[in-house]
Amino acid sequence: MWIMPAQLELPPSVEQRSFGEEERRNVLRPVLIPAAGFAGEGAPSAEDAVTVHQDAAVYASLLDPGAAVTLRLRPGFGGYLFVVHGALEQVGPAGPLAEAGAAKISDEPELELRAGPMGAELIVVETQLR
Predict the structure, then answer these.
(1) Which of 39, 63, 106, 113 could crosslink 34 through cysteines, CB 3.0-4.6 Å?
(2) Ranges in the chain, pLDDT < 50
(3) Beta bridge partners of 83
(4) Nearest Cα to 125, choosing from 74, 76, 80?
(5) Can you list the domains of the chain with their CATH numbers?
(6) Residues 118/57, Cβ–Cβ less than 8 Å
(7) Cα(80)–Cα(82) distance, rounded to whole angstroms?
(8) Beta bridge partners of 71
(9) Beta strands 68-72 and 110-128: pairing type?
(10) Cα–Cα distance, 102 to 107 (Å, whole number)
(11) In angstroms, how far is CA 124 from the centroid of its own chain?
């Protein structure tokens, strides 16, 4: 996944982190957050997340069967949802999303995600709408 930096000609950098299953279980865990100076109002924070030179965030979750999480999107933000394994019974008002499914998120102030009977592993990317 590539997120374009907000500023041109920054020196190249690479960060890598690992987040275990228990750190992602039944929560939307911020794994990528804006670097200092790039975060807008309400941006997520996490001391151990990877940073990016853009006002964007990536969340990872491992949901038990039937478990639900909610993400309140910032005004002017939307994003993308990817189901890595399992399935979601509910994706906001849209209904189900199967394994390997993806959805674009726009015009939703809050997103409720509920795992199907086998659980779900998912990634949510929050970006500014343009």
Answers:
(1) 39
(2) none
(3) 122
(4) 80
(5) 24-128 (2.60.120.10)
(6) no
(7) 7
(8) 111
(9) antiparallel
(10) 17
(11) 3
* pLDDT recorded at residue 72: 93
pLDDT reported for residue 31: 97
The pLDDT of residue 91 is: 83
Q: What angle do CA 96, 98, 100 make, to 5 degrees?
A: 140
DSSP string, the chain: -----SSTTPPP--------HHHHBTS-EEEEEEPTTT--TT----TTSEEESSS-EEEEEEEPTT-EEEEEPPTTEEEEEEEEEEEEEEETTS--B-TT-EEEE-S-SEEEEEEEEEEEEEEEEEEE--
Q: Which residues of 61-92 are buried (b: 16+ CB within 10 A; e: fewer)?
A: bbbeeebebebebbeebbbbbbbeebbbbbbb
Q: Is 9 left (phi over 0), alpha (psi -120 to 50) or beta?
A: left
81 and 122 in contact (C-beta within 8 Å)?
A: yes
